[in-house]
Amino acid sequence: MTRAARRLTTRGVRVAAGAVVCTLLAACGGASVNRARSAAGEACKSAEAEQARVWNDAQRRLLTTALEAVGPAYAARTAQDVTRRMDATSAAWLAGTSAVCAEKARPGGAASRTDASAACYDAALSYQRAALAALAVSDRARLPFARDVADSAFDVVERCRHPDALGPFGSVAKADAADTERGRTLLARASVRLIQDDASGAKQEASRAEALGLRLADTRLVADARVLRVFAALRQQSNAEAGAIASGIGAPYVEGTDPLGAASLLRAESEVARASGNAEDALRFAERARALVERALGAENGEALDYARRVADAERAAGETDPAVSRYARIAEITERSLGPDAPRLAAVHAALGEVYAALGAGKEAERESSAALAIAQRAYGPDHPRTAEARYELAKLLFSQHDYARALVEAEQAFSSRAAAFGEASPSVAETLSLAGEVNAAMGQNEIAVDAERRALSIYARVQRANGSEAFALHMNLGRSLEALSRLDEALAELQKGLAIQEDYTKAAGPELAATHERIGGVLRAAKRYDDALFEHHLAVQLLKESLGPSDAAVAAEQARIASILEEQGKLDDATETYREVLRLDENAFGKDHPRTGSDHQSLGRVLGLEKQFPEAVSELRLALSIHERALGKEHPEVAGDRRHLGLTLAAMGKPKEALPELSFALAFYEKATPVDEAAVQELRAAIAKAGKKGP
Known about the structure:
Shape: elongated
Strand content: under 5%
Distance between the termini: 76 Å
Number of helices: 31
């Protein structure tokens, strides 16, 4: 699978970038200090020349040509953004080194401070070289991350302005100049590869840096390389490997003198804890890391804001939703004030807030935040950038969840166009968007269009060797639903069975998940009037639910109710009656005797008893259902209409037209006003009323 095939997430990449830069600049310190400078004056003269060798008109043209040559419409805009950011990085570096030179030349200047600052700027220049080398490669997979790489180069220079960030640069390395430069170059390359979502390349570069550190007996270089390897392993979802690497790093960073190095390790430990499901430790480590970075860089620094957002993410994962919302809101306020309203980091914060509100069911707030994230992404990256497409896709998902299908479809189609242009049509992000478009079209009743979108998505997953993953499973299930809606039942059944095979062989689905798939298959078989096969599937579902949830769980009762309904449809009324009685018993135990679900069980039992002509008990059950539903749901609820419909039909069958007519008339009036109209029920009720009216009182 190519890196371009991976899903881009605004939040994930930016968070990773912040962590990587934190590791990198700490790494460029203890393992690599600046070359000895003979005198402050000579250093001042050489600084501008050094920067000019790294960033100049020729390099600017090379970078622009490389980025624009990739092809997508957003490449030219990205090239402009990146060159502007590198201009800013160069200017910041020159301003910083000039200030250091001036301090060195000043009588009585703090030599240790200026030496550490100079070393920091030397390390930042090495990072700038590595960033430019990566940006100058024409690679479609790397293009979406170009702005992040440029931003990270600026962040590295920005650090050197902060005295508390200079701790690692206060001692002279034992390695010679060549080894120093090689060590920090390898670490810079690893960091840039991570930002570019190239975990494999990052792991290789970090491993080379680790080997160099071991050869030089440089414990700091080894530790820095291992921190980067942790992030690479996590990106590859190799959680056990990441944990093993993290446990072997030790404690090379002293929080008092090297807060950023300590923060990078804590960040890695937090990510490892989160990946292993330990939300409490993940939050604890994240909070400690945030405090260290804010102490070193200030609360309004971009990297510090990334660390603060990581705390909010951890709070959310730990179920501490209210603190997470408050923290995200504060971060958004600080980010806009300190970095401006078009900062990419700000888009990420609004996107995270939107997700939290959506999980809380606060649709209006979720839409507000998701729309803000999209608007900022459009300004920050341009309308065709994959990050903008990602924000648009997330908004489409939210709108779909709110049943705003028309707007969801518009956003999904625009996201598809941008992603297809950026990555080509055979990429997982395009398949993901097609899958959403299929769901939206199916919800709108456009099932032929849904089938086409879902088949195209499955074809893409097959081509990128993800035909057996969770995405493909969901697609097979959705495609089965769309085909079932078109009455193409054999095709629907085939898709659902493919989904079941993926669950059983690849995704290690739990009992309830497998039961849900068997239930879906049973539903299609029932529609095809293959009742015995349908019953077999539903009984399998019951067995799975009993084994995983217990024999008295409400899910078992719901599945038993489906079995009873099929038996009723088959005309096996005795078996249906006994099964409905068992369902009623389970639901009374689970929900109580006055719960609406229990009322529905009484309705089902009364209906089938009426079909068996056990009229007195049938009427008793139906009146009980009506009483429960009226108290719990009100007199204008569909369940109440259903109770009165079946009660009226049963009374009419008993030869009691006077009692039947009010019930039938109420039900008919309700069904005629319902949307959509249940034509079968309306015709049945009209016929029953006409017949009861002829019989008279």
